[in-house]
Specification:
ribosomal protein, 40S ribosomal protein S24, alpha+beta, single chain, about 180 residues, 6 strands, about 45% helix, structural constituent of ribosome, eRP_eS24_sf, 6 helices, Alpha-Beta Plaits, about 25% strand
Length: about 180
């Protein structure tokens, strides 16, 4: 099933008639079209009922690649989900433009999103704080750990690890409190 978004009107088409119908609508209404969303390979984790996984194809003739935010809004409206539970990633535009493919995950609840999404995607969304310090600093600490032995080594390593874990856990809890409050 294909959906064409033309000035907030959703029009459904079959595969073989889509190009003719789009040209007809554009010529008839003189409307500026943004992009078309096609979803494929929709997998629903039925045993767990956690999320829907889908492959997304965007058609945007003579237009730049749509932003992730606009794709998230369209998928949330199409699948009747909250925009905060939709994750879009891996958007790749084909050479010459006009078509972009990617992946999307639609979680049932915010708790599942926090539990199953990788940390780097949570950092991109601003849920977990970004890493402080630099890669060089971590390498220096790592080399110091190689030189030390025994209890000193475990003390340095565990103090560094627990701080990160506690900060991330606290940040997730505050995010969930804000989500429930709204």
């Amino acid at each position: 099933m294909h959906f064409v978004y033309v000035e907030e009107q959703i029009i459904c088409f079959s595969f073989h008639k889509i190009k003719k119908k789009i040209q007809f609508i554009l010529n008839q209404n003189k409307v500026h079209m943004t992009f078309i969303v096609k979803t494929r390979k929709v997998l629903l984790k039925q045993s767990l009922e956690i999320r829907r996984q889908l492959s997304v194809e965007l058609l945007h003739p003579n237009k730049p690649t749509p932003s992730q935010e606009s794709v998230v809004k369209e998928l949330a409206s199409k699948y009747k989900a909250d925009e905060r539970n939709v994750v879009v990633y891996g958007l790749r535009t084909t050479f010459g433009g006009n078509r972009t493919t990617g992946f999307a995950l639609i979680y049932d609840t915010q708790q599942y999103l926090l539990k199953f999404e990788p940390k780097f995607r949570l950092r991109r969304r601003g849920i977990i704080p970004k890493r402080d310090g630099s890669r060089k600093g971590w390498k220096e600490v790592k080399s110091k750990l190689k030189k030390t032995r025994g209890a000193e080594k475990t003390k340095i390593y565990m103090s560094r690890k627990t701080d990160k874990r506690e900060v991330i856990r606290a940040q997730k809890e505050t995010y969930l409190k804000g989500f429930v409050g709204k």
